[in-house]
Each structure stands twice: as C-alpha cells, then as structure tokens.
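USER:
Make up one protein:

ASSISTANT:
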Amino acid sequence: MVREISAGGVVVRKIEDEWWMAAIELPAGEPAASADGKGRKTKTVICLPKGLVDPGEKALDAALREVREETGIAASLVVKLADIKYAYVRSWGDGERVFKIVSFYLLRYESGQIDNISQDMRIEVAKAKWVKLEDAPKLLAYSGEKQMARKALEYIASHAEV
C-alpha cells in the first residue's frame, strides 16, 4: 500500500459578525476519490484546500502553500486542528490502494482575492469561494473535512481572540 502525506487548511475570516471559510470546488465531472475506487461522483464536490507535502517541506508550510495555490489567498496559523487518516483507491493511473494522512490547520485569512488562481490550477480547482463556516459541515464532501470544519467552529466558539 502506498503512503501519502498531505496538509491543508480551514481558512477563516469574519465578515459583518459572521465567520466564513475558504472552500474549493472540484472541476465538474471530476471523479472524486472514493473508498471503492470507482470514483463515479459527478455532483459538485466542495472540499478544503490541501495537497501533498513536498520532500523536505514541513506540513504547515505545505498547508499554507496549498491554500495560496488553490484559493489565491494568504493565511496565517491559528492552531493545528488534527490529522485525519484514511485509505482510498486511486481512480486514475495505477488503481493503487493508498493510505493517506492529512494534517489540517486552522488558519486566519490575511490577504488576497479568493479564486485568483493560475490557469494551470484550474485542472484541480474549478472555483474557490467563501462559504459560511456554520454551513461547512453540510457542504463539504468528505467526512474527515466535515469534522475539521466542526473542530474549527468549536475552537472559534471558545477562543474569542481568533
């Protein structure tokens, strides 16, 4: 079984007394990774920005880089939320079974325009957008990411300084 190490972020910002979160939408018809490897989901898939940690790169640096590449915004660390672990079967290429660990961080929006991403990135990201953080657990496609959105909500509720 192949191992992959990734990192991503729950990027939040407050607009008019409401918390919003950066999310990405996968290209339409893009087969999302599924547990059975069939990857046949064709509905709109909303997820958190994340990606592979490059050799020699720290997980936090990878999360900040992936957020910048996939959403067009810059963010700073608030706190590490958790690591999620799961297995999937690649629906492309070799069909290999993969054990994946993703480190997720709660990040605060600093600058940039959401969805201001390179044309090359449009292969991976159809659109980056702000969604209400309270709605995120219902909107996100993957259970581990839903859990990260809930953790972000809990952290913000108990830490007024965010």
User: Anything to note?
Assistant: The longest strand covers residues 73-89. The CA atoms of residues 57 and 145 lie 22 Å apart.
